[in-house]
């Protein structure tokens, strides 16, 4: 009976793991691959610049301090305070939005959330954030004039529209359930200041920065990971030699 119970438990656990793996790999709607690389310091620096210029007016990163960002991204205190600090905060302060929460709730219907842990909290991680930022389009029926295919009816305008341009939906076949035509794809109707390839890189950089902000220690963990593996290999070899020496007398 014990063997039967263990076999059934293993089967159930295996099924759950496969289900979660499939769900994470292919969320509904067609998730895009971000291609972020936390070892690319230049990408993180560009992402920090873009976030502070386009996102920090509404969103905070309350779990990340300016000083920690400078240390991790290879920036000096002067560079951070002159180019990335728009609130007059001290170098050791967390990155907070300058927008009052009550006014934000009045303007947007809800106060913009803190983005410190966004990448870690979303199924799909950085790919979710990348897809979200790529999926804004003009929508005249929305109060803000914008909508998002990945997060419909989101209370947020497309703050990157100057870079991306004006993206509009191309309607496809009608949904059998509602009779309403669905969005087949999005296309750029009015070009922005960046080419599509440049904009994809910009969104990738912002996503990479938010991935870093969600777990700053990851940069150091990756850097020491190789040395940990080297140590384990050396320790394993040392243990094997010690075992051989002990068993020589036994034999």
Short descriptors:
single chain; 251 residues; alpha+beta; Cytochrome Bc1 Complex, Chain D, domain 2; 2 domains; two-stranded antiparallel ribbon; two-stranded antiparallel sheet; 10 helices; 52% helix; extended; disordered N terminus
Any chance you could write out the topology, listing elements then pairs?
Blueprint: H1 2-25, H2 41-54, E1 61-65, H3 66-73, H4 77-83, E2 94-95, H5 101-108, H6 118-121, H7 126-134, E3 136-138, E4 146-148, H8 161-164, E5 165-174, E6 181-191, H9 196-214, H10 217-250
What does the model show?
- The protein is an alpha+beta fold.
- 52% of the residues lie in helices and 14% in strands.
- Strands 1-2 form a two-stranded antiparallel sheet.
- The longest helix has 34 residues.
End-to-end distance, in Å? 43 Å
- Average pLDDT confidence is 84
Q: Count of helical segments?
A: 10
* Biggest sheet layout: 2 strands, antiparallel
CATH class of the largest domain: Mainly Alpha
In short:
This protein is 52% helix and 14% strand.
């Amino acid at each position: 009976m014990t063997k039967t119970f263990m076999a059934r438990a293993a089967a159930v656990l295996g099924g759950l793991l496969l289900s979660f793996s499939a769900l994470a790999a292919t969320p509904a709607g067609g998730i895009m691959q971000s291609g972020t690389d936390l070892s690319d310091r230049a990408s993180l620096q560009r992402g920090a610049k873009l976030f502070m210029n386009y996102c920090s007016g509404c969103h905070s990163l309350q779990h990340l301090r300016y000083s920690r960002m400078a240390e991790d991204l290879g920036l000096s205190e002067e560079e951070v305070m002159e180019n990335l600090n728009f609130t007059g905060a001290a170098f050791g302060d967390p990155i907070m939005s300058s927008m009052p929460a009550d006014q934000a709730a009045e303007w947007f219907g809800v106060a913009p959330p803190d983005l410190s842990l966004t990448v870690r909290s979303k199924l799909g991680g950085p790919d979710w954030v990348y897809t979200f930022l790529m999926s804004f389009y003009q929508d005249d029926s929305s109060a803000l004039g914008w909508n998002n295919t990945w997060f419909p009816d989101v209370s947020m305008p497309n703050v990157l529209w100057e870079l991306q341009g004006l993206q509009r939906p191309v309607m496809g076949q009608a949904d059998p359930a509602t009779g309403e035509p669905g969005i087949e794809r999005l296309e750029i109707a009015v070009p922005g200041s960046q080419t599509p390839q440049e904009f994809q890189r910009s969104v990738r950089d912002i996503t990479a920065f938010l991935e870093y902000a969600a777990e700053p220690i990851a940069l150091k963990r990756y850097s020491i990971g190789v040395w940990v593996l080297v140590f384990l290999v050396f320790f394993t070899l040392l243990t094997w030699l010690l075992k051989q020496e002990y068993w020589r007398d036994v034999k």
